[in-house]
Amino acid sequence: MNYTEFLLWVRGPAFHFATAILVLGLTLRFLEMLFLGSPRQYAAVRSNGIAGGIRTVISRFAPPEPGVFQRSWFIIVAGYLFHLGFFISFFLFAPHIILLKSLLGVSWPGLPAPVINIITIISLFAMITLLINRWYYPVLRFLSDFEDYLSWTLAFLPLFTGYLAFHHIWLPYPLMLALHILSVEILMIVLPFTKLIHTFTFIIARWTNGARAAQKGVQV
Amino acid sequence: MTKQPTIGESLRSQGISRREFMKFCTTAASLMAISPALIPQLAKALENTPRQSVIWLSFQECTGCTESLTRSHAPNLESLIFNTISLDYHHTLQAASGEAAELARAEAMKANNGKYLLVVDGSIPLANPGYSTIAGMSNKDILLEVAQGAKAVIAVGTCAAFGGLPKAAPNPTGAVAVQDLITDKPIVNVPGCPPIPIVISSVIAHYVTFGVLPQLDGLKRPLSFFGQNIHDRCYRRPFYERGWFAESFDDEGAKQGWCLYKLGCKGPVTYNACAIFKWNDAVSFPIEAGHGCLGCSEPDFWDAGGFYQALSVPLTGTATAVSYAMVGGAALGVVGGLLNRQKKSEAKQHHEVVSIADLKRT
């Protein structure tokens, strides 16, 4: 298999397979969650919970209480830089927008490549420092399991291979592009069955917690 | 058979001056990325070498490769190169036909056995030998016969190099490339649909001068011409960087000469020298003319996801995969959900009632 055939394979059958597993996995996991149902409410609900749900979805973007940021500022800042960097480089890089338009039918303006380039570097740097931090602190290292390292690797590789492909570093561009797409496909396949599913569930989880909390208690 | 004149003798007999000859040697050395120190060696080799016997076989092809080589402006390097070789057999260009033509081939093969260069354009059909024949011989048979006594094989054009258009799905003729059949001879692929004339002639010049084929990449293409991709050398690259793309062939972006990535340009994955040497005496090349690169020097370019589909767009079939996956996921989700409920309900039934007395310390 030469690199052209490899690229066609990752753009064709491999992408279809990965998308199918992602969709199958997400549908399966969401239905399982749906079937869990809601706990029985023994008291009259305080409110419909909508306001509480929205409030929690937003409030949890910020550190929960004073002092937490001072104690863990590094993880919070680096975590934000990585997540925002990943989000921006994925959703605002022109070739990605074309891909998403072909799948979803909607399009939006992108950012110039040099901007994406800087954001990707910051994001990669943030990820590396977070990994070092994870190793450096014994408690964090003790709490980390295989899934944590797998998640880090699967999130790191698309950014890293994308950066190398864009700059035509190391391997011929078609091969590096194929590896970049393949790294995303592996991420898509693993995502629904690991903690990486938080990409889709974090808003639902925040909403559910916020809404249920808002339903409890005495009406005022 | 009469003694073959040397290249120098041949050029002088056609009135080409020493100055013109040295100019050619300098340009050829530059094109092939050869050190300027080797120019005298190049000149000496070309001067004293007998004209290289070349047998050119055309199989499933459109003659575009020959057109590319012969229709270039004159006088130029290509015509000069053609003067340095003895083209002993070429369907389209030779005057002889029928048995006389085949006799010329047989004579050239006999006289230069083990020394002649075999140039092939077109792919070889294997599904049925009758799809393409020359003088009653199948393409495969004639290729194997001629390749046996060849010193090296140059596959000119994407059809000969990788199968090209005839090999496009569903490949009705069972077309294969030269390298699929010839495995015991040095092969150089000069792909392109058609290839750039200077690339064909430079490879021949390199072989005539040094007696070896030039340095090749993983797909057996000369590195000096196929070492860099179109995207890296494209004059529209700054617009790609800025994110300025033509959305259609007649919008404002197209008129302003913005990047053609969204219109399916395959420049980023295509290795060729079009953006450097250009066509029609370096006048223009497809991207400069307003059309994206088709990637014609890459294997299977015909089936690479549509000429007008952007490179980052997946090949068709995603919607079907998603439909099946949703149905499968929904079925598994319902079954999984019900099983979880059943498990929960069974666990509830088996709960033991614990009273405060049970919790007392014993």
Relative strand content of chain B: 5-15%
Distance between the termini of chain A: 70 Å
In CATH, the topology of chain A is named Fumarate Reductase Cytochrome B subunit
Main sheet makeup of chain A: none
Structurally, the number of domains of chain A stands at: 1
What does this structure look like?
The complex is a heterodimer of chains A (220) and B (362). Chain A contains ten helices and no strands. Chain A is mainly alpha-helical and 220 residues long. Chain A has a single domain, classed as Up-down Bundle (Fumarate Reductase Cytochrome B subunit). Chain A is globular, with a radius of gyration of 20 Å. The N and C termini of chain A lie far apart (70 Å). The mean pLDDT of chain A is 91. With 362 residues, chain B is of the alpha/beta class. Chain B folds into two domains: 7-226, 3-Layer(aba) Sandwich (Rossmann fold); 228-340, Cytochrome-c3 hydrogenase, C-terminal domain (Cytochrome-c3 Hydrogenase, Chain A, domain 2, Irregular), CATH 4.10.480.10. Chain B has helices spanning 7-13, 18-31, 39-48, 64-70, 77-84, 98-111, 139-148, 157-162, 178-181, 197-210, 223-226, 230-233, 237-242, 252-255, 274-277, 318-349, and strands spanning 52-58, 85-90, 116-121, 124-125, 133-134, 137-138, 150-156, 175-176, 187-190. A five-stranded parallel beta sheet of chain B has the order 2-1-3-7-9, sandwiched between helices. The longest helix of chain B is centred in the C-terminal third of the chain and has 32 residues, at 318-349. Chain B is elongated.
List keywords for this structure.
heterodimer, A: 220 residues, mainly alpha, Fumarate Reductase Cytochrome B subunit, 10 helices, 0% strand, globular, B: 362 residues, alpha/beta, Rossmann fold, five-stranded parallel beta sheet, two-stranded antiparallel sheet
Concise description?
The complex is a heterodimer of chains A (220) and B (362). Chain A is 75% helix and 0% strand.
Please write out the topology.
The complex is a heterodimer of chains A (220) and B (362).
Chain A: H1 3-11, H2 13-36, H3 50-59, H4 68-91, H5 94-104, H6 113-136, H7 138-143, H8 146-166, H9 173-190, H10 198-215
Helix pairs in contact in A: 1-2, 1-9, 2-9, 3-10, 4-6, 6-8, 8-9
Chain B: H1 7-13, H2 18-31, H3 39-48, E1 52-58, H4 64-70, H5 77-84, E2 85-90, H6 98-111, E3 116-121, E4 124-125, E5 133-134, E6 137-138, H7 139-148, E7 150-156, H8 157-162, E8 175-176, H9 178-181, E9 187-190, H10 197-210, H11 223-226, H12 230-233, H13 237-242, H14 252-255, H15 274-277, H16 318-349
